Amino acid sequence: MRVGIFISGTGTNMKKILEKYREGYFSAVSDISFVLSDKTSAQGLKTASNLGFKTIPVPRKPGEKRLDHENRILEAIRPFNVKIIVLAGFMRILSPKFIKKFSGYIINIHPSLLPAFPGVNAQKQAFDAGVKISGCTTHFVDETLDGGPVILQRAVKRNDSDTLESFSKRILVEEHKLLPETLDIVTAEKFRDYCGYIKVEKHK
Ligand code: GRF
Question: Which residue's CA is the nearest one to ligand 1's atom 14?
Fold first, then answer.
């Protein structure tokens, strides 16, 4: 399966996927065709380029409508004919039209145990709420904010000595394992079509 990755920032999750791909970790990813960013200055674009992957910056123009921007993204990625899009820190909400085009084949990583703490600054939301456990979630993307069907989750315990920074760091360490694992499961067809989504059949 051909895969594309969308990022907006540092791209450490993306980097893990690219490294794992190079190591031959994925059994059914035929190609990571591009890394796209809506931010030209995203550190992750440099990282991907240094690792020899195709990068596509598609910044939103001042005053540009969301759908017009999305159409330019679709135009830019069309030649690559990817089956799966991985959102690895992509900070834009995709329209239902865009999501439908990939009919359930968009996956996202979120730094909380969804459905708890959707939206931005999820680690801070959890930390400020005083939870003893948070973590990270991978899920299929639908029209709801961080609300699509869950694929995998990993819990991270909050220690009494944790600061927001140390807690977030440990969550990120788990994200770096969870996202490649999710991509492997999804692409290796351990899922089957169900209600318009690919549904979990068997976890590793
Ligand atoms: C991660 O915490 C991810 O869960 C969230 O955005 C962050 C991206 O980090 N959606 P990075 O760019 O992969 O380092």
Answer: 12
